[in-house]
Hints:
CATH architecture: 3-Layer(aba) Sandwich
Number of domains: 1
Number of helices: 10
Number of strands: 13
Structural class: alpha/beta
Radius of gyration: 20 Å
Amino acid sequence: MGSDSANLVEIASRFDKLRILVVGDLMADKYVYGNADRLSQEGPVPVIKVAKEEYRLGGAANVAYDARQLGATVLLCGVVGYDDAAHMFRKAVRDAGIEAGGIFPSSDRATTLKVRVVALPFNQQTVRYDYESRKQLTENETPTVKRYIESNIDQIDAILVSDYDKGMLLGNSLPRFIIDFANERNVPTIVHSKQRHFRLFGGATVVMLNYYDAQDFVHIASGNFCTNILTITEETVGLLDCAAALVIRDEQEMAISTRDGFHRTMQIGTANNFSPAGVGDAVCSTFGLAIGAGATYEQAIMLASRAMKVVLAKEGTATITIGELVG
């Protein structure tokens, strides 16, 4: 085993000593599997004879699940509705071994639920329907979330912020509180966000972006249209005043630039036809745990690239385990 690989394994071995707080948009994924033997007489649509159903964690909860699978103790914070989906979601969180004390009910929204109907035997998705709300947290809900973060921050090693633009992090109040409060306590923040919210997370430790979102952001904010992934990450660091920016381009590559002048591009080079959901979640959780464990940015991106390769070799909403990461 080379020295680089040995160092990465040693860093990963610290993951089970970490306490990680994941804050963001909580989502549930429901998969309905069945055979499509005929078309409906009521319209040109397949009739699915249901064989089984599966529930999985999505959004910020999938980031939390990945972090838990990698060995960390994970606290999850977000909001759900008063509905059946919330009961299913809480059970899935508990079953995954994730601490659920930061999951708060809201009478103002539905639990975000994505339902996918999949036709067997070829696993062909026939339709997806979503229940969701994109409302901002109310004046009563925001202080509750802030108090939860305040009460736990001295016992955590990193905060992972997962923004799926479902309302949890809408507005300036909560994102600014998380970043400023964490900076005061020297707790690193790793943010995976949607483009229109990037500026809300200025001053974060690491901001993780999709290549095309980052390209648009840099173009709008600075007038520079860049195609080189490293140039985009460098521009992002300056525009958001973050310690580092991590940019992912499709299934091809990822790059990091830091305020201190470190730059690195990693070619992923996977040879498969899959494009599963959950790639960004796996990268966010792996990179965040590495930073929480004291890794350098170079070591963190090397581990994150390993995670990305593992997930890209899978179908569906893919996750990663510690064995797959270091194996």
